[in-house]
Amino acid sequence: GMRAASGGVWIGMASCCPATAWPALQAPADYNPRGESITLGSDLPAYTMSPPAGVSATGGGVIVLPEVFGFSGRLRGICDTLADEGFHVIMLDCHRGSTVADGPDIKTWVGKYPYESVVEPDLNAAIAWLKTEKGAAKVGCVAFCWGVWAACKASSCGVEFACCVGCHPSTKLENFAFDRSEVEMMKLVKAPLCLMPAGDDPDVIKPGGEIADHLLSAGDNQVVVFDEMRHGWVSRGDLGDATVKRDVEKATTLMLIFLKKYIV
Question: Counting runs of H as helices and runs of E as strands, what totals does the chain give?
């Protein structure tokens, strides 16, 4: 199942609405996203969703940072779920329509999107949009795979997030694609961080590993390992598998609790 460790008080599992109704738990083929596709600035594709009528807005904003496959899988449904819980949401495609399938290999492809020239300006544009267009007082981040590297890099470089949630993190890209220290980057993350690694994610980001142990000893961070899951399960795992569905539900619940603790 799930091993939970927390630097602060462990928050009980409390779901805000029946999880079966969450867009985050609908297969993409069965779900029609309710948000809007926009372009930020001259060329940054984004998907946005705001709290629907009848939902009281928290006043908070959330930036969603995807994997390396564009807006595929359940990512739009996850955005809609965040909006249903009262957040103004914007998901960014920092890769401008390209995916890792364009090659030639993961390292080269990821290396085309450096933090300094691509990710940082994109995040600053999204934060400005949430604050000016949507009136968000605080902005948090929900990230997956590549996106967790981007979010942690940003927080380590001074971008102000109220908190970050990282599902199946690929923070190892700091080493693998950019030849810099992943450990040093993670030690500089300022935002409260909830990391949810899968069983096959690297040990360094699980309790007992250097990064997880640092996070749990400093600040109000959480590391929750989903031992039975494989990398990618929150956004792409097979919901026909009862164990995967259970852990997608748990991860989404933890995500919402963590966001509401810091953004509302």
Answer: 9, 9
